[in-house]
Amino acid sequence: MTYDITKIIKPRAFGDLRGWIEALRDAGELHEIDAEVDWDCELGAIARRVFGEGEGPALLFNNVKGYSDDDDVWSRQVFTGGQSNYSRLRMMLGLAPDATVTDMVLATQHYFQQRVAPEIVETGPVKENIYKGDDIDLYKIPAPRWHGLDGGRYINTYQGTVTIDPDTGEHNIGIYRGMLGEHPDTLPVQLWRAQHWGVHFSRWAEKGMKMPVAHVYGWEPVLPYCASAPIPTGVSEYEVMGAIRGKPVELVKCETSDIMVPASAEIVVEGFIDPDPATFEMEGPFGEYTGYFGGDKCPKHVTKVTCVTTRDKPIFRGTLEGTLPKQLNENSVMSSIQRAGVAWNVLTAAGVPGVTDVHCPAVNNGTTLIIQIKQTYRGQAKQAASAIWGSNSSHLRYKHIWVVDEDIDIHDYAALDWAFAYRVNAAEDDIVFFPATFGSLLDPSTRLGERNADLYGTGKWCRVLIDATCNLDFPPEEQYDGDRFPPTVEPLEEHKDIVSKRWKEYGF
Q1: Cα–Cα dist 307/305, whole Å
Q2: Residue pLDDT, tens place only, 194-241
Q3: Helix/strand/coil for 119
Q4: What is the C-alpha separation between 269 and 213, in angstroms, rounded?
Q5: From CA 413, how far away is CA 374, in angstroms rounded?
Q6: How does DSSP classify residue 65?
Q7: How far is residue 318 CA from its own chain's centroid?
Q8: How distant, in Å, are the alpha carbons of 6, 81, 331, 340, 464 from that of 334?
Q9: What is the torsional sign of CA 190, 192, 195, 200?
């Protein structure tokens, strides 16, 4: 059963990335590497090994090859892994160290419904250094080549990319991949029409204008947490960030556009994206969240950089993408909580009753969603799946949905497998296909021809519901004392009580 999560959360503002790093250091959650590390794949290989199955510390690289005190560069440190562990997500969400996964999901569900308006300030630490014109050189930032088969050095992996609607001025913050370009002032990106910034881009293009954009690197952990979430249209991610930290986000205006960015960010790269294909540069492939390399090398939209602002001695923030069995990362761990909280809010808004828990296994980044319900009428599982698939939050997630009864532990694969074995009968419509829907362009289970972003703007999925609830279409059976399923082999309470009282007598 759910409970009032507000009684156990204590919102906490860390101030900026440096405050977050200090908090991790104090909690024993940070490992600093002073040995020289090559940005070309070595750094990524270290991160892969440390992240492991979600048990490793956050990493601060203090000595990146080619970015020492003797080099003419802007940044010399790389921070990663701040959200690759549940213990650090508990810290960010203001929960105690012993909080459960469900507690984190409930906290996310709560925070994503709250709003704390940002505050506008005149200036901030991110304005300590301002570079324009010939002074712009993104190669002065130690962006790694994370994987051996990456098409380049990926600077956009865990940033907040900010765009504005040209008609309403509404800001959107998302995380989209991008790499260092052919020139020191270009940053090719992967831009899809179905994404929120893709909607903004289309509106700017319809007006015959380039889209202003700002890429923000390094701030409090709520930035990537909210930027990667499908926050409802019309709601500012900055307002949700303020709710999680319990304090307004201080924003400052960019130098070359009207975009507002966190005043204490480490680095902000400002620019414009032109719809003219003549401006495109080669981008890809990249080790994607699926665990496969995705997005072949081809011409992509480019952020033409007009200004870079930084703090003094800024720390670059990036992350290692891609999840495999027993190899998790920040996105997978974070998504398992964040996407479950989002889905729960969708179910609540749609009026689906009886939801008692929601879970996204970390290994698939929210591609699979598991819903636990107290079932009161037939078709409830199908109602839940329809609500999820009809929401914009399902664009890149929730491809497969399981719905189980409240007696099934949705965090236990063995329990799910038991429910699948004995409560699912395909002939009873317990497996439902929802074909030809939008989906991820990066999912290699979709035919390559269906993953053309220029033609379709999105991928093509056949979604599946596994209804592993007890079938309410079955009439009550006399042999089951009026129930639809036989009793389980769980010992009776009276016998469990006897055993509990005598447990030590048995020599345990």
Answers
A1: 6
A2: 888 999 999 999 999 999 999 999 999 999 999 999 888 788 999 999
A3: strand
A4: 8
A5: 19
A6: T
A7: 14
A8: 20, 11, 5, 10, 24
A9: positive
What is d(CA 218, CA 265) in angstroms, rounded to the nearest whole number? 6
**Rounded distance between C-alpha atoms, residue 463 and residue 417, angstroms:** 19
Q: CA 383, CA 123: separation in Å to the nearest integer?
A: 49
pLDDT digits (tens, 9 = 90+) for 233-288: 788 999 999 999 999 999 999 999 999 999 999 999 999 999 999 999 999 999 99
Cα distances from 151 to residues 56, 101, 137, 183, 284, in angstroms, run 27, 36, 19, 15, 5
Does the predicted model carry a pTM greater than 0.85?
A: yes
Answer for the pair 362, 371: CB distance below 8 angstroms, yes or no.
no
CB within 8 A of 10, min separation 6: which ones? 94, 95
Q: Give the residue from 273, 231, 222, 250 showing the smallest Cα distance to 83.
A: 222
Give the residue among 217, 219, 186, 222 at the shortest CA–CA distance from 75.
Answer: 217
Query: What does the DSSP assignment read for 282-296?
Result: EE--EE-TTSSEES-
Q: How far is CA 242 from CA 115, 163, 245, 341, in A?
A: 7, 19, 5, 17
Q: What is the pLDDT of residues 112-167, one digit of tens each?
A: 999 999 999 999 999 999 999 999 999 999 999 999 999 999 999 999 999 999 99
Which residues on adjacent β-strands are paired with residue 301?
A: none
Query: Rounded distance, CA 375 to CA 287, Å?
Result: 41
Which two tokens mark 239?
Answer: 């307002």
**Residue 307 to residue 271: CA distance in whole angstroms:** 7
Amino acid type, 408: I
Instruction: Please say whether the beta carbons of 76 and 47 come within 8 A.
Output: no
The C-alpha atoms of residue 473 and residue 427 are separated, in whole angstroms, by: 13
